[in-house]
Amino acid sequence: MDTTYNIIKNMKARPHLFILGAGATKATIPNGDKNGRKSPVMNNFLQEIGQEDLLKKVSLKTHSNNIESIYSELVENPEYSETMSKIETAIISHYQQMEIPIEPTLYDYLILSLRKKDCIATFNWDPLLIQAYNRVNKITSNLPELLFLHGCVAVGLCESCKCFGPLVNKFCPKCGQEYIMPKLLFPVKNKNYNQNLFIQEQWQVFDYYLENAGIVTIWGYSAPNSDIEAKERMLKVFSNSFRKLDQIEIIDIEEHELLTNKWKSFAKQTNFHLQIFSSLLDTLIAEFPRRSIDGYTKRFIEGWWGKSTLTLKECKTFEELKVLFLPLLIKERDNNFDII
């Protein structure tokens, strides 16, 4: 009995880790951001941000329109350093202009459905996750940690204190020095995850969550060829032990067989506890918002056959969203994380 109790107690204390790729932002703003600005994918990237003219004077061996293939070739040729610099500036400018829509989005639901012990790690450069965090923070401050594995246009770094915060704040609260935006990790084949302090620290924290998470949800991340090193590092950390009680969720619109093959090396470590969904609203956080680990443990480890009566649903306003989550937040004030 003591062993079972400790297994359940320890499982509930573990984090839920979300890993986001470009597909997550696409799903969050399917019709564009507040001003109709789209979140481009890797294929036809420059065309989507209106910068295809930057390649007019460039002779490329690749016939691909994928920004990863294009950038990887440019970075290997010193002759194109100016073109590469212009592409980087255009990418940063595009993303810095993005604004999250006024109404609640999937990013708002996601952040509000997790707690401080949980984590959202994104490969995306856009500022939408931070913008969503800042507005749901008005509902509760018990929110997950955010990590930006390839950098983010909304992050500011103080070179003096070696600390970071929202770039919009402009100045470091400790020393008053002006923030700079850490260099983004652009899509080259051989990425250096130690290239700057910010990226290095983000991955160190990410390793912790990846090793300790009871549930790992991968949303819209295709693990492209330029991220081979990242995937290998993730698998090495994830495989430190056999995780027979753990769960992997995939949120993607690709074919199930393709997704299963892509992530089978990870699923193997969990005795193939792998589920695939097409929407965030079908996952464990949708059934058990702010209680995903608790709900998973209660059902699959304790053998519970019940259902949650408070589930995630689309809300038209933030007041409606606040009302939805209020029963959970009230219980949390008393350190009560029971399923409602």
Low-pLDDT sequence parts: none
Tally of helical runs? 14
Q: β content, as a range?
A: 5-15%
Main sheet specs: 6 strands, parallel
**Strands of the largest sheet, in order across it?**
3-2-1-6-7-8
Dominant shape: globular
* Helix-strand pattern: HEHHHHHEHEEEHEHEHHEHHH
Find the count of extended strands (DSSP E, 2+ residues): 8
Helix content: 25-40%
Question: Class by helix and strand content?
Answer: alpha/beta
What is the CA-CA span between the terminal residues? 25 Å
Radius of gyration: 21 Å
| Average pLDDT score | 92
Describe this structure in words.
The mean pLDDT is 92. This protein has 340 residues and is an alpha/beta fold. The protein is built from 14 helices and eight strands. Helix 6 packs across helix 7. The radius of gyration is 21 Å and the shape is globular. It starts with a helix and ends in an 8-residue tail after the last helix. The longest helix is centred in the first third of the chain and has 16 residues.
Which key terms come to mind for this protein?
340 residues, alpha/beta, six-stranded parallel beta sheet, 8 strands
Describe the structure in brief.
By secondary structure, the protein is of the alpha/beta class.
List the helices and strands and how they pair.
Layout: H1 2-12, E1 16-20, H2 22-28, H3 45-48, H4 67-75, H5 81-96, H6 106-112, E2 119-122, H7 128-136, E3 145-148, E4 155-158, E5 163-166, H8 197-212, E6 215-219, H9 228-238, E7 247-251, H10 256-262, H11 264-267, E8 274-277, H12 284-287, H13 292-300, H14 318-332
Parallel strand pairs: 1-2, 1-6, 2-3, 6-7, 7-8
Antiparallel strand pairs: 4-5
Helix pairs in contact: 6-7
